[in-house]
Amino acid sequence: MHEFSVTSQIVEAILKEAGKHNAKRVVAVHLDIGKLTFLGLEQVRFSYEVLVKGTILEGSKLYIEEKDGIVNCRSCGYEGGFQYEDDPIYHIPTPTLRCPNCGETVEIEGGRECTIRDMKLLISEDDKTDAD
Predict the structure, then answer these.
(1) Closest to 58 in 3D by CA, of 24, 107, 31
(2) What single-letter DSSP state applies at residue 68?
(3) Helix, strand, or coil here: 85?
(4) Predicted TM-score of the model (pTM)
C-alpha cells in the first residue's frame, strides 16, 4: 500500500512546516492529488487518520481535491484529457497515453501532482480559528 508511505511523507512535511510557525495545532489540510498518482483517496484518508494520532494534527480536517490528468500531443497540438483502457489484466483502468485526435504518443502535463495546497494552523491558544 504505497498510500501509507506517501501519506507519511505528507504528514512529516506538515509537521515540519507547522513547527516553523510554532503552531499549537493544525486545524485543516488541503491536498491536491492527481489521478495519475494512482493513489486511493480513501486509503490516503485512512493513513492520515492513523498517522496523525498523538500529534498536533490529530482532529484536523483533511480536504482532498482530485486533479484530472492532462496530456499534450506534439504532433497535432491537442491538450486535454485522455482515454483509459479498461483491460482486466491491469485490474484498474490505465491511461492509453495516445492522443484522442491523432493516435500519436502524448506527454503528461498534469495529474501526477501530490501537493499540500495549504493548511490552517492554530498559532496561539487565544486564536479561535476553526476549520470551516
Answers:
(1) 24
(2) P
(3) strand
(4) 0.80
Total number of domains constituting the chain: 1
CATH of the domain at 85: 3.30.2320.80
Instruction: Over range 74-99, report the average pLDDT.
Output: 76
Q: Which domain holds residue 11?
A: 2-122
The pLDDT tens digits of the residues spanning 7-60 come to 999 999 999 999 999 999 999 999 999 988 989 999 999 999 999 999 999 999
**How many Å apart are CA 11 and CA 51, to the nearest integer?**
7
Could you count the other beta carbons within 10 Å of the beta carbon of residue 74?
11
Q: Is residue 22 part of a domain?
A: yes
CA distance 5 to 99: 33
Identify whether 132 is part of a domain: no
